Amino acid sequence: MNKSVRLKVAYKSPQSLVGEYTRSVGQGGVTLRTRRSLPLGTRFTFELYLGGVPRPVEVLGEVVAVEPPREEPGYLLTVRYGAGEDRSPLDAVLQRIFSAQETEGLRRFPRLPLTLRAAEATPLSPAFLVRDISRGGVGLEVMAPALPRHVRVGTPFLLEMDLMGGELVLHGEVVWTSSIPRKDAATVTPGFGATFGRLRAPMQQRLDALLALESLPPAPWKARVSFGMDAVTRMP
């Protein structure tokens, strides 16, 4: 019988919970250093709690590899992640996010917190991180000290990713750029937002499935971003 480990984490907001959920499930797994070994097949259940939601959102894990100590003390455990089978707690958290944003009335479309790495095909381009997405657009951070020169307001933009239900291709243009100071640090986090153009029905359906976290990318989650003429030539 396989050993089972349960870890409980509480979150102050539904946004922070969903952000951690998408980060964990999206990376597909993690390597941990522990003082003692665990048998292959040991199951982890990460319980993500939010006040007002009776049951936790679950992220499941399983130990798939164990490396013995070498130069540094401790064992290296590789844990493969997966989503829990019961969606109802996750749906309740998502509803909290969307209901709160609709009540605020500040945006036309409610945003979903998302943690999704993206890359550009251009050589030496920085990495990008999709931080939120909605029916109307997307917000990204740039993992570099400054925005690339070609990322400007009005620049054509394309976001592509593979989902379980097919390829999702979202086209639009950059509508804002910013440099946000990192918390408790002197450095900044460059970022930008893009709005989507008119989407065909199949793409709209795939986007809606992603917003409900029903149709997800295969792990590890990754996407491709394009700008300017590269984006235009790849647009559907």
Mind sketching the topology for me?
Elements: E1 4-11, H1 14-27, E2 29-34, E3 43-50, E4 57-67, E5 75-83, H2 88-104, E6 112-120, E7 127-133, E8 137-143, E9 156-163, E10 166-181, E11 188-196, H3 201-211, E12 222-227, H4 228-234
Parallel strand pairs: 1-3, 6-12
Antiparallel strand pairs: 2-5, 3-4, 4-5, 6-7, 7-8, 8-11, 9-10, 9-12, 10-11
Helix pairs in contact: 1-2
Q: Major sheet, described briefly?
A: 7 strands, mixed, barrel
Can you count the beta strands?
A: 12
What is the 3D form? Answer: globular
Strand content: 35-45%
* N- and C-termini, Cα separation: 51 Å
Radius of gyration: 19 Å
Question: Helix share of residues?
Answer: 10-25%
CATH topology of the largest domain: Thrombin, subunit H
Q: Kindly name the structural category.
A: alpha+beta
> What are the segments in which pLDDT stays under 50 over at least 5 consecutive residues?
none
Please, what is the CATH homologous superfamily of the largest domain? predicted glycosyltransferase like domains
Number of helices: 4
CATH architecture of the largest domain: Beta Barrel
Mean pLDDT over the residues: 88
How many structural domains can be distinguished in the coordinates?
2
- SSE series: EHEEEEHEEEEEEHEH
- Write down the CATH class of the largest domain: Mainly Beta
**Sequence of strands across the biggest β-sheet:** 6-7-8-11-10-9-12
